[in-house]
Structure formats: structure tokens, C-alpha cells
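Let's see one such:

===
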Amino acid sequence: MTNKSIYFICGITILVLSILSFRQKEEKVKIYLIGDSTMADYANYGDDYIKTRYPVTGWGQVFQGFFDQAGQTILPGSTVATTVEIDDRARGGRSTRTFFEEGRWRSVYENIQEGDWVMMQFGHNDAATEKTERYVTIEGYKEFLRLFISQTREKGGNPVVLTPVNRNYPWKDGQLQNCHGEYYQAALEVAKETETYLIDLTMLSIEEFTGKGQEYVTSNYFMNFGPGLYEAYPEGSKDNTHFQPEGAKAVAALVFEAFRKIDKK
């Protein structure tokens, strides 16, 4: 074998090893979503989605599509190209306490792998003082957020606190107001105290909804429509908390863009 042939074979070998090494560095991670109905994937509720629920759509239900469109993503704090899988565990009517008590958090905790992410968005049900089966005091809310954060880190995961997406009220002089009060502030405080990544979805959604205008978001983003349009809602719907597909996509886009920037602040 000539020296030229040997050099050629060595060169090919090095190239192949380099490609294999690059592939080995590519990663696949999960982003777990934990929270309430505004984040939930209704198609995973185990019933006939079109007949019983559509068009209600949680923003987590459409979140995967943003990562699929982007292809492999450089996640915050990483230099490695990563494929992302969204695992949406959010469920309607859950507060931080009930999500924990029902074992939903345990099922997430047991499956977190090093490098995975956990996005937590609660507050809508924690604040429901009239629904004692859901209600959580401010201090309780903060304690459960701390628990989710610390146990995510125990497993080598990356927690992200999201302030709760705003409802379509109250409006004042064409400007949507924050409806989450102390629970909004509590989420900010826990994120700061624990030095956890924060996505201020309350303010991002207020800005988005205000920019579109009350009339537009009421009819196109939230579950407000007349009778006879959808099989699941023969009498129509008046709901300023939950989203139609367009609203869910708008909120998911806010979270996606904020997530890509959180390590650059």
C-alpha cells in the first residue's frame, strides 16, 4: 500500500470519527410542562377531543410545533444542538397543591433526566378562594413552587418559573390589567429568591392582548363564540380564561421566544 493510500484512508477515518463524534454530541431533551388548563393538551385527555372539547386549546398543546419548525435548537446554557420533545403534564383545574397531592408531580420527578427542563405555570386555581378543593394560600403556593424547583435540580434538570398567563379581564381604557394580584408577585419572588429562570408570561400576554385589542382577542383568542359553530359547544361559549387555537398559538409563541432569550439576559 502506498503512502498516498495510507494518508487517504487515515483522512477518511478521521472524517468518519469526526462525524460520529458530532452526532454523539447531539442531544435530545424533554421539556416538561406542569400547570393548569391554560397550558394543558386537551387532545391527551383520553376522550373524543373534537366532539367534547374542541376548539379549546392549551398553549402547551401547540408548543411542540415551534421547536419542530426551528429544528435542532441551542438551549439556554448549552452549546450543543438539541432536539426537543415537549411532555405536557398540565391538567385543568390544578393548583400547585393538587398537582402535587394527586401524584402528578411525582410522575414528572421520577422521569426527569439530567439536562431536561421543567416549565411551571400555576396561579389560576391557587387563587380560587371560592373553590376550597383547589385553593392554596400565597405562602403555600410559594412553597410548592420551591419544591418543584429544588426537586427538578436534584435530578439535574432546569426549572423555569412562568407567571400565569393573563385572563381577558379586566380592561381599562383599552389596556388589559393584571388579574393575578399577589400570585403574580409571589411567582416573581420565588424565581428571584431561588435564582431560577423566569418567563414573565403575565406581562408578555398583557402586552400581546392589549396590542391586538379587546374586541379581537375576545373573539379570536378566547373561547367566545355563538351557538352552532362547534359540536362540543352547541349553545356557544363565553369564556375569557381558555383559548381557541389562535390564542393558544399566540401564547406559545410568546413562551418560545422568551425561552430562547432567558440565558442571554
Q: What stands out?
A: Confidence is low (pLDDT under 50) at residues 13-25. The first helix runs from residue 3 to 25.
